[in-house]
Amino acid sequence: MRASLSGITVRFGALTAVDNVSLDIEPGEIHAIVGENGAGKTTLMNVLFGLVQPEAGAISLDGKAMRWASPQDAIRHGLGMVHQHFMLQESMTVLENIVLCAEPVTRFGFIDFAAARRRLAEVAEEHRISIALDRPVGRLSVGERQVVEVLKMLYREAEVLILDEPTSVLTPLEKDRLFATLRSFRSAGKAIVLITHKLDEVMELADRVSVMRGGRLVRSGRLSETSKEEIARGIIGGELPPARQRTARTPGEEVLSVCDLQVSGRGGAIGPLSLSVRAGEIVGIAGVSGNGQAELIQAVTGLMPLLSGEIMLCGRPIGHLDVEDRRRIGMSYIPEDRQRMGLALGATVSENANAGRDDRAAYTRGPFLNRAAMARFARQLIERYRIRVGGTSAFASTMSGGNKQKLVVGRELARDTPLVIAENPTWGVDIGAIDFIHGELMRKRDEGHAVLLVSTELDEVLALSDRILVMYSGALAGEVAGAEADRERIGSMMTSRAADALPEVA
Known about the structure:
This protein is an alpha/beta fold. Helices cover 33% and strands 26% of the residues. It has helices spanning 41-49, 71-76, 94-99, 113-127, 142-155, 172-187, 199-205, 228-236, 293-301, 323-330, 338-342, 349-353, 371-384, 401-413, 431-446, 458-464, 487-492; strands at 3-12, 15-25, 30-35, 56-61, 64-66, 79-82, 160-164, 191-195, 208-213, 216-222, 254-265, 268-278, 281-286, 308-313, 316-317, 331-334, 364-365, 368-369, 419-423, 450-454, 467-472, 475-481.
């Protein structure tokens, strides 16, 4: 099926998100759409999928004009979309999620789950996909949840598949298997749209690439006719920044100390873990997702109770303190999940930018909030981090994923605390923003702050860390000095606990 967008324009208040864009999506191709955060990539595909109504423009499938009243219309005509933040009901099983709103029924009006299982068995066999249909989604790994989203599209017989940042939180093995699955879809004649910031993945997988900047389509063509450098220049509108160099320095006093820490994990107890972070150093934690990194960070930040052990921050024991008290002593936290933990999506950009700062004298007038001062601070973050949004009074829910991430990063680094915990800080942000955020973390380190970095991006850990700790199976597998670390050495200390999340595809 060939999908075409012609002259699409979308505005959100004063913000023009998509500006007169025309694009063709061909069957049997993987079409990558790249661009800065807020460039309009996801909004354009949301138009194609029926989630956003354009102010101008038209949609056609195989030359026939279409107009969607809702995403259900698009789904019925063969479109499917996997969003950056999954649209799954965690309390329901895999099978229930897949058939939701598309349930087969018996002649007596009951849901025919047996028929759904048979249909899914056919789809799974065709594409060599395997997953337990009766497991609750809330118990699945990120990679397994993505399998569910893909199966939802196939169950509805989608011919145009749209995937928004599909590898942001996948392990390397899960990513490889997803790519094999997408190649299988391409061989079956399906049209695939891949929205991504990862240019290495574009070069590995795509047949065609389109670059958007500031809501406009600035270039589009076959991948074989361009280069990674040309694509990058198109994204940022100029030359790439030079690679950052980490200067050696002697760290100061211990800021964070974790001693014999044990916490509950999905497969049993995590730990005992012992580590320290000193002033003026970045300690990176590498490891395949699911090996205890999340539980460690939740314990340090106060989001998970300890089974045993001790945590010290700035010389004070904090294991018994709640999140607010730990932040008050001197902890900033950039969480992995910006949707549920980093932001209040129903609040404004200004309110989110000032979260955790409301008790400061500069932001209050007696018992009331000083809204003007809050807006000034929010504007500073918007300008410094190049956050694309319709203003300080816009709701956080209207922002793209990458711009949400930049808002969280800017707010937390502005708190100027002795300890910064950064968990996948560049998830879903563009190449220019990645470089800026890396620079901000290194600036914090050079100013004498302690930084604990957890990232599933090994290159990020290698680029920033003075020391690297590797986690495997809930324990620390070893420590390597940043200057001595390389991909092979760190990679040999890592393994995947999610080997069956995505299947092999021939």
